[in-house]
Amino acid sequence: MKKILFTLTLIMMMAFSGLCFASDGNDLNKEQKIAENFMGVFTKEQAPEYAIVSKDFSDNLKKSVSERTYKKLPAEIKEKFGNVKNVDFRTFEKLGQEDRITYIASFDKQPVAAIVFIFDQDQKLVNYIFAPIEQQVAE
Questions:
Q1: How much is the pTM?
Q2: CA gyration radius for the chain?
Q3: Is 115 helix (H, G, I), strand (E, B) or coil?
Q4: Per residue in 8-50, pLDDT tens?
Q5: DSSP string covering 55-92, please?
Q6: Reduced to 3 DSSP states, what percent helix, strand and coil does the chain have, rounded to the nearest 5?
Q7: Residue 1's CB: how many other CB atoms inside 10 A?
Q8: Nearest to 100, CA basis, from 130, 80, 120, 85
Q9: Domains along the chain?
Q10: Which of 1, 49, 72, 84 has the fewest Cβ atoms surrounding its Cβ within 10 A?
């Protein structure tokens, strides 16, 4: 009887713990893959093709980021920030109808910069932001 009770308790505990896993895990994985694919434009020698990257763009982003704009992006980033040294995932936020993924990057000219990717509820990339982070020096 004790073995049966123990087995039932163990099964119930395992079933309940399965409910406690992060339900946003699949969203994060897919959106991270899209973001990292997009960042390949400045982290890899050969940037991914526009047709591959743009399939995950929202309709509005496809209008504002054409193939021509996409091809200019590596030069613009290199001019403003320099060569990329390191990119690290920082946060994943669910804010109402949108998700935000933030990476912290270091470049030659800009020691610390935030790269934010904003996704809609359909997991399409809506916007991206490269923002330099100014470090405060303690007196």
A1: 0.77
A2: 21
A3: strand
A4: 787 777 776 665 555 556 777 888 898 988 888 877 777 788 8
A5: TTB-HHHHHHS-HHHHHHHHHHHHHHH-SEEEEEEEEE
A6: 45, 25, 25
A7: 5
A8: 120
A9: 24-132 (3.10.450.590)
A10: 1
